[in-house]
């Protein structure tokens, strides 16, 4: 599986409890642009509206800017393709306070563009500091072994 984009801040800012794979509905030139590695999901969210899951604030620039349609929107909401039972599971979990659906990474799977969604809860500042201290400690131990 080839990674197209990754949301590195997601695991730093959120405590990911559950993850799921979803397809994404794109136009032809968005697919070409995404396969070229021009897909940005930093700051993006997934919302559930009307029994469907939508990806908002994801940025896909046009494949050929001078040949793009006049009404092309780079930041439009894109529908995510999940089964109804998965949507119900996420809907039930999102009812709890402070939980969000966050895109973790976008990748290719057998030629199709897939997105990994994580159900996460925002970490407190103290938790983030703890994680940074743990990583620094592990890094120091590795350096001292060698």
How far is it from the N-terminal to the C-terminal residue, by CA? 32 Å
Global geometry: globular
In total, the number of domains comes to: 1
Instruction: Spell out the CATH superfamily.
Output: Small protein B
**Secondary-structure arrangement, i.e. CATH architecture:** Beta Barrel
Q: State Rg.
A: 18 Å
Walk me through the structure.
With 146 residues, this protein is α+β, with helices and mostly antiparallel strands. It has one domain (2-145): Beta Barrel (Small Protein B, Chain: A). It has 4 helices and 7 strands. The protein has helices at 8-13, 28-35, 84-94, 125-145; strands at 2-6, 14-24, 45-49, 52-56, 78-81, 99-109, 112-122. The chain has a 7-stranded antiparallel beta sheet with strand order 1-6-7-2-5-4-3. The chain is globular, with a radius of gyration of 18 Å.
What are its keywords?
146 residues; alpha+beta; Small Protein B, Chain: A; 7-stranded antiparallel sheet; 7 strands; globular
């Amino acid at each position: 599986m080839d990674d197209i984009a990754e949301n590195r801040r997601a695991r730093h800012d959120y405590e990911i409890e559950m993850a799921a794979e979803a397809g994404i509905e794109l136009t032809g030139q968005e697919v070409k642009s995404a396969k070229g590695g021009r897909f940005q999901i930093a700051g993006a969210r997934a919302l559930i509206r009307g029994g469907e899951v939508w990806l908002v604030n994801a940025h896909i620039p046009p494949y050929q800017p001078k040949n793009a349609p006049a009404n092309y929107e780079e930041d439009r909401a894109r529908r995510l393709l999940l089964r109804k039972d998965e949507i119900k599971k996420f809907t039930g979990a999102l009812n709890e306070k402070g939980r969000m659906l966050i895109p973790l990474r976008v990748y290719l799977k057998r030629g199709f563009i897939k997105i990994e969604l994580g159900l996460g809860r925002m970490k407190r500042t103290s938790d983030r500091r703890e994680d940074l201290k743990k990583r620094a400690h592990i890094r120091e131990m590795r350096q001292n072994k060698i």
